[in-house]
């Protein structure tokens, strides 16, 4: 196994949430469900769906939890067509109450860039994802912290993840992603995660298989770290 660890049990799948046809109520529903999972002593992993699920999940965590968001887009817009809570504003919304770090970006506008610089946030462009200096800087900021990992599937190159809502060329590959994931999970305590923005087309289930692989490896890495802590 690529993570050197196999999870044989400890995984429980909830029934799919039936969200109301209203954004505010849907956000509350996601928050309450994630809160229940946390209170039960478990690690929530969400599968979506629109990236707005991450905002709903964020409301269930305290300010001490940092959010590491893998995304081709900065998602720092003030609104979309006059609507503040939307998939293009997720990072900005979460950053109002939490530390947010974004990796894999290759699409943002000048207003988003100015806002990110003003808040002195950490953002790693896709072309910098293999930079040792950049990754070490990221790990330094995350070391010892509780973190939530959000993976927008469009962070990957469309050649390996074509089934997404807003694909962007020149994305990262899975080898690079997994290598970074191993370092992050070794340095930090992952308390939650989500996989989002998957929109499968007739691509031979390529994107679905990749999403399933991410979930499998992420669960294994979370449990691997927890197992080491229990044995010390």
UniProtKB/TrEMBL annotation:
Keywords: Hydrolase, Manganese, Metal-binding. PROSITE patterns: ARGINASE_1 (PS01053), ARGINASE_2 (PS51409). Signal peptide: none annotated. Its cofactor is Mn(2+). GO terms for biological process: putrescine biosynthetic process from arginine, via agmatine. Pfam families: Arginase. This is Arginase family protein. It comes from Candidatus Acidifodinimicrobium mancum.
